[in-house]
Design a protein that fits this description.
Length: 153
């Protein structure tokens, strides 16, 4: 309560001094600049105590947001990248087969990945329907051996 009393009395004193200064100063072309300066001083007197309110305990507090970065594992992101690579490679191979042989195929790719989910090679390519021409196109496009290409069930 003492804070509020000091705050209001400071504002009243600043306003009274501002009125006195405004009436004491003679009329001149500088009077409007002096009035602006006095107004700024009064505003500072009003605002200054409010800047110290951050030291007070707030009535309402925001809950603390904690982000658990263990849930945002790098391996999850790498696994997603691995899966996306498999999908895109299958799509590219399907488009290449369609462009070169005019045959529509369904292709799925399975890649080898180490414990850090880094792609180390292509494990298996499943194709439906499959024939020697399609197999040759995939071998040339992906640069893999024909042994890893199988018929998709």
């Amino acid at each position: 309560m003492e804070f509020l009393y000091r705050y209001i009395s400071g504002i009243v004193i600043a306003c009274v001094l501002a009125i006195l200064l405004e009436n004491i100063l003679p009329e001149s072309h500088h009077k409007k600049y002096i009035n602006v300066t006095i107004g700024l001083v009064v505003m500072l007197v009003i605002i200054k105590p409010l800047t110290g309110l951050s030291d007070l305990n707030p009535v309402f507090t925001m809950p603390e947001t904690v982000i658990d970065d263990e849930d945002l594992s790098i391996n999850i992101n790498r696994k997603t990248v691995t899966e996306e690579f498999e999908k895109r490679l299958a799509q590219v191979l399907s488009e290449e087969v369609l462009n070169k042989s005019k045959k529509k195929t369904e292709i799925s790719v399975l890649v080898d990945a180490n414990e850090n989910c880094e792609i180390t090679g292509i494990e298996k390519i499943e194709v439906y329907p499959i024939d020697e021409e399609i197999k040759d196109i995939i071998v040339k496009t992906a640069g893999v051996s024909p042994e890893i290409i199988e018929e998709k069930n």
